[in-house]
């Protein structure tokens, strides 16, 4: 049939062709759901336009919640064979049916004081906060947002930011208040500081303790893979991605007992921007 519509298109004719014979012979008890997106005449997917860069806001800054795959890959160590190195995921806060905040962190408070890298994830209100959360984020492809990466002290401040902003996020979560999951990966304080600095240099996190902001819900700008985010970093005007750099030493011994190894880079190019160097590492 046809239906008149106002806006950019006057009329839309939708024709459904059902293969009745095939449906009658399909032994399936589940409901059949058909989704149709009505697009204006002449519509062009903005992601297909020349010069499109995913994962950024209008000014070109990389936004954490628009780069979830890259950030989750950086945080997800849930399958490490060594228990001490695993990323643990736990409940932090949700809301009651009366929309009152419910803290779920009490049992974890003492653990928060250990040197570790922490993050906070906004998830749908019925989502689980456990070792499967990163897999759930990949499977659903939406409504899982990294909003904080940092240390234990700023972790607590970010929770207060969540409470203050939660009501304004209902529109992003289909009318429901979101839930807050926490992640923790124990490591040496030097490594915590290095990873915190790197991730906060690359991305703007909504619950940053120095400059919190509202959640960016421009879903069409999301980088869907880590590779797409890497491409956006390389094309960013905010970083020097082709700096003149060299390693101070090409051979370095690291001791497992230290928990980390440190290599120094020497930069000889002009220091007008922060430099970003993408390095691939291998363990032998």
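Sequence proposed for the structure above (284 residues):
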């Amino acid at each position: 049939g046809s239906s008149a519509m106002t806006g950019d298109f006057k009329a839309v004719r939708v024709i459904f062709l059902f293969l009745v014979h095939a449906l009658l012979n399909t032994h399936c008890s589940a409901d059949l759901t058909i989704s149709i997106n009505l697009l204006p005449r002449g519509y062009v997917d903005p992601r297909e336009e020349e010069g499109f860069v995913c994962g950024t806001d209008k000014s070109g800054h990389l936004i954490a919640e628009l780069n979830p795959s890259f950030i989750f890959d950086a945080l997800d160590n849930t399958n490490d064979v060594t228990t001490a190195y695993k990323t643990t995921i736990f409940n932090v806060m949700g809301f009651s049916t009366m929309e009152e905040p419910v803290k779920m962190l009490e049992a974890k408070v003492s653990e928060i004081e250990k040197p570790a890298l922490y993050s906070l994830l906004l998830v749908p209100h019925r989502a689980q906060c456990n070792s499967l959360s990163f897999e759930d984020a990949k499977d659903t492809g939406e409504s899982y947002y990294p909003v904080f990466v940092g240390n234990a002290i700023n972790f607590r401040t970010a929770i207060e930011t969540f409470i203050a902003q939660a009501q304004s996020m209902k529109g992003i979560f289909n009318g429901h208040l979101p839930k807050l999951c926490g992640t923790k990966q124990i490591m040496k304080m030097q490594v915590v500081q290095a990873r915190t600095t790197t991730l906060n240099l690359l991305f703007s996190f909504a619950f940053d303790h120095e400059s919190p902001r509202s959640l960016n819900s421009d879903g069409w700008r999301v980088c869907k893979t880590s590779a797409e985010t890497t491409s956006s970093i390389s094309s960013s005007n905010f970083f020097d991605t082709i700096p003149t750099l060299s390693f101070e030493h090409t051979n370095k011994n690291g001791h497992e007992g230290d928990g980390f190894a440190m290599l120094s880079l020497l930069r000889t190019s002009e220091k007008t921007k922060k430099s970003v160097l993408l390095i691939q590492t291998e363990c032998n």
